[in-house]
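User: Hi! I'm working on a homework problem where we have to compare a predicted structure to a textbook description. Could you give me the structure for the chain below?
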Amino acid sequence: MKQFLMLKKHNTANPVPVIRFPVANAASPIDGTGCFSTQRIPARKKIGELAGEIISVREARKRVRQQKRVAMVEFGNGLALDASVGANALRYINHSCRPNSYMRCCYGRVEFYSLRAIRAGEEITCNYGETHHDGQLTCNCGAAGCKGSL
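Assistant: Happy to help. Predicted structure tokens:
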């Protein structure tokens, strides 16, 4: 199963393979739709890259105000990735206060890596860190020590 990320940069597209392990989207006990591994993912492995549209932070913040479910990652260099446009299955990785993966933002990419071995059928989760929700969104991760909000 291969998917491709389309980066918009100076009106050129660079297709890049983005998912290294097979995953599926299904109903999540955490929130809405989740991203689930369909085979075991070893610890400390790159799961893949989040697909979406590269836009300015200004445009990203404008879009966030119009969305019920936010799928935006800011890079800190004036650009952001909008994973609600041209997304792949990793767009549905839900937040958890005790995640099994982490997100790395670099070189205009959003990458996910496993923190530990992830079982087949297990939901892939990530600690979102600072979000546009500013602590106003209730966290439903159910993890021991849950912070209660995003």
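For your comparison, note the following. The radius of gyration is 15 Å. The chain has one domain: 4-126. Good luck with the assignment!
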